[in-house]
Amino acid sequence: MTNVLWLQGGACSGNTMSFLNAEEPTVCDLISDFGINLLWHPSLGLELGENLQGMLWNCVLGKIPVDILVFEGTVVNAPNGTGEWNRFAHRPMKNWVSDLAKVAKYVVAVGDCATWGGIPAMDPNPSQSQGLQFLKRQKGGFLGVDYRSKAGLPVINIPGCPAHPDWITQILVAIATGRIGDITLDEFHRPQTFFKTFTQTGCTRNIHFAYKATTAEFGQRKGCLFYDLGCRGPMTHSSCNRILWNRVSSKTRAGMPCLGCTEPEFPFFDLKPGTVFKTQTVMGVPKELPPGVKQKDYALLTLVAKDTAPTWADEDFFLV
Ligand code: SF4
Ligand code: SF4
């Protein structure tokens, strides 16, 4: 039996929605087939009021073992470092996080808010939000650079806005079945199995990318979204086109640019008119190019690619 305690800080519940929609495995599979015992979850927990508070104290005191502490949402520190803006079970949530992180065997941060601060931590960050072990790209976050859970691991980060449901349930299974040691974390504590490749890997528009065939409209069946609509697929580490959403499609397959939601800097856009869903360019060349591509080479390649594009590179593909 693996006890899982899921708490939520400054969040929109998007990762809870994602989790509840998991398919491989489902939340029910976690319980029936993988020995997960959900101690409490904001949408599924049965305990309320004094009972919930008592259960949390029993976890803090070690009377109930916490095998996995899952945290969704930011750690809210406002006002003035007190955390009073986000109270839960009679005390600031940040105090629960601090106490429970000391006794948890593993800590898993789910979604951008819990990993790097996400949207709540955008400037000017009025809620003084932090991720569990990062604030954007900067290491440290609420628990500090040196934090290690009882099992000796840092916080396992599953970013995304929201995180893909199967990324969440598969990591819980890996821990519950003792296979988490086989999974390597990258420098941002993301499991490489989901975050080593780029969103572009598996995108059905790769041929359009190669031949610089663009689309400036959402939802079209042809054209790459990089050149006009600011797609961040080539710069973003995620498996969105390998492990499809709802087992059917992905954002870029459906004609919506990747916003780079699994990277620490997300959201990349500011709210100035003309900056969202618009590729920023300097003299016609995108300001930000895929890693390893030089501006000068890119400009040359563009000329060649457009000139050598076969007719079929501009064909519709079957939209899934
Ligand atoms: S739509 Fe985005 S992810 Fe797909 S090929 Fe173009 S840039 Fe890459
Ligand atoms: S396609 Fe990009 S923005 Fe969309 S979920 Fe995947 S990583 Fe996030």
From TrEMBL:
<dbReference type="GO" id="GO:0030313">
    <property type="term" value="C:cell envelope"/>
</dbReference>
<keyword id="KW-0479">Metal-binding</keyword>
<protein>
    <submittedName>
        <fullName>Cytochrome-c3 hydrogenase</fullName>
        <ecNumber>1.12.2.1</ecNumber>
    </submittedName>
</protein>
<keyword id="KW-0732">Signal</keyword>
<keyword id="KW-0408">Iron</keyword>
<feature type="binding site">
    <location>
        <position position="231"/>
    </location>
    <ligand>
        <name>[4Fe-4S] cluster 2</name>
    </ligand>
</feature>
<feature type="binding site">
    <location>
        <position position="261"/>
    </location>
    <ligand>
        <name>[3Fe-4S] cluster</name>
    </ligand>
</feature>
<dbReference type="GO" id="GO:0009055">
    <property type="term" value="F:electron transfer activity"/>
</dbReference>
<keyword id="KW-0003">3Fe-4S</keyword>
<feature type="domain" description="Cytochrome-c3 hydrogenase C-terminal">
    <location>
        <begin position="195"/>
        <end position="267"/>
    </location>
</feature>
<comment type="subunit">
    <text>Heterodimer of a large and a small subunit.</text>
</comment>
<dbReference type="GO" id="GO:0044569">
    <property type="term" value="C:[Ni-Fe] hydrogenase complex"/>
</dbReference>
<dbReference type="InterPro" id="IPR027394">
    <property type="entry name" value="Cytochrome-c3_hydrogenase_C"/>
</dbReference>
<feature type="binding site">
    <location>
        <position position="224"/>
    </location>
    <ligand>
        <name>[4Fe-4S] cluster 2</name>
    </ligand>
</feature>
<feature type="binding site">
    <location>
        <position position="113"/>
    </location>
    <ligand>
        <name>[4Fe-4S] cluster 1</name>
    </ligand>
</feature>
<dbReference type="Pfam" id="PF01058">
    <property type="entry name" value="Oxidored_q6"/>
</dbReference>
<feature type="binding site">
    <location>
        <position position="258"/>
    </location>
    <ligand>
        <name>[3Fe-4S] cluster</name>
    </ligand>
</feature>
<keyword id="KW-0004">4Fe-4S</keyword>
<dbReference type="InterPro" id="IPR037024">
    <property type="entry name" value="NiFe_Hase_small_N_sf"/>
</dbReference>
<feature type="binding site">
    <location>
        <position position="240"/>
    </location>
    <ligand>
        <name>[3Fe-4S] cluster</name>
    </ligand>
</feature>
<feature type="binding site">
    <location>
        <position position="203"/>
    </location>
    <ligand>
        <name>[4Fe-4S] cluster 2</name>
    </ligand>
</feature>
<keyword id="KW-0560">Oxidoreductase</keyword>
<dbReference type="GO" id="GO:0047806">
    <property type="term" value="F:cytochrome-c3 hydrogenase activity"/>
</dbReference>
<dbReference type="Pfam" id="PF14720">
    <property type="entry name" value="NiFe_hyd_SSU_C"/>
</dbReference>
<dbReference type="GO" id="GO:0008901">
    <property type="term" value="F:ferredoxin hydrogenase activity"/>
</dbReference>
<dbReference type="GO" id="GO:0009375">
    <property type="term" value="C:ferredoxin hydrogenase complex"/>
</dbReference>
<keyword id="KW-0411">Iron-sulfur</keyword>
<dbReference type="InterPro" id="IPR001821">
    <property type="entry name" value="NiFe_hydrogenase_ssu"/>
</dbReference>
<dbReference type="InterPro" id="IPR006137">
    <property type="entry name" value="NADH_UbQ_OxRdtase-like_20kDa"/>
</dbReference>
<dbReference type="GO" id="GO:0046872">
    <property type="term" value="F:metal ion binding"/>
</dbReference>
<comment type="similarity">
    <text>Belongs to the [NiFe]/[NiFeSe] hydrogenase small subunit family.</text>
</comment>
<dbReference type="GO" id="GO:0016020">
    <property type="term" value="C:membrane"/>
</dbReference>
<feature type="domain" description="NADH:ubiquinone oxidoreductase-like 20kDa subunit">
    <location>
        <begin position="12"/>
        <end position="175"/>
    </location>
</feature>
<dbReference type="GO" id="GO:0051538">
    <property type="term" value="F:3 iron, 4 sulfur cluster binding"/>
</dbReference>
<dbReference type="GO" id="GO:0009061">
    <property type="term" value="P:anaerobic respiration"/>
</dbReference>
<dbReference type="GO" id="GO:0051539">
    <property type="term" value="F:4 iron, 4 sulfur cluster binding"/>
</dbReference>
<feature type="binding site">
    <location>
        <position position="12"/>
    </location>
    <ligand>
        <name>[4Fe-4S] cluster 1</name>
    </ligand>
</feature>
<feature type="binding site">
    <location>
        <position position="161"/>
    </location>
    <ligand>
        <name>[4Fe-4S] cluster 1</name>
    </ligand>
</feature>
<dbReference type="InterPro" id="IPR037148">
    <property type="entry name" value="NiFe-Hase_small_C_sf"/>
</dbReference>
